[in-house]
Amino acid sequence: MKQEVTEYYKKKGFVTVYVFVNNESRKMVQLIKPDGTRFTTSYAKYLYTSHYQCDVNKDEHIDHINGDKTDDRIENLQKISGTYNRQKDHVIKEMLLLTCPVCGKEFLFEKRNLNSHPNPCCSRKCGGIKSHWKTD
Predict the structure, then answer these.
(1) How are the residues of the chain apportioned to helix, strand and coil, as percentages rounded to the nearest 5?
(2) Which residue in 16, 63, 67, 135 is deepest, having the highest Cβ count within 10 Å?
């Protein structure tokens, strides 16, 4: 969908802007100069740079504060480092403190793995010993 170019991008020489949705359901923009040069960026970055009249360098990202990547309201956008943006979405693993049934040693075990390993051991060595136990 064609839109009016913001003043910030008019100063940079762009005359046309098209907004479209990519395959991840995110809005993108394609900016076009009179000579046909094209530049594509996220709609969030386009809005942020237009509103704050600033460039975003390659080491920075425009982040959605509430985590909804389709919520492109200016108050939901912030500039952060690319490193932080990649790290902030990692889920913290929930760990359990268990006692090994073979040697009695305490060890940490990921809670999500309890379904597939209902009675885990602290090591492969202890696991091998336990697998030879007779169960009557």
Answers:
(1) 25, 30, 45
(2) 63
Which portions of the chain are predicted below pLDDT 50? none
Structure tokens at 102: 């073979």
Q: Which of 100, 96, 99, 127 is nearest to 110 (CA)?
A: 96
Spatial distance between the Cα atoms of 95 and 113, rounded to a whole number of angstroms: 10
- Residue 87: per-residue pLDDT: 79
Arithmetic mean of pLDDT over the chain: 91
d(CA 136, CA 133): 10
105 near 122, Cβ under 8 Å? yes
The two structure tokens encoding residue 100: 């090994």
Main-chain phi, psi angles of 25, to 5 degrees: 65, 25
Cα–Cα distance measured from residue 7 to residue 113, given in angstroms and rounded to the nearest whole number? 54
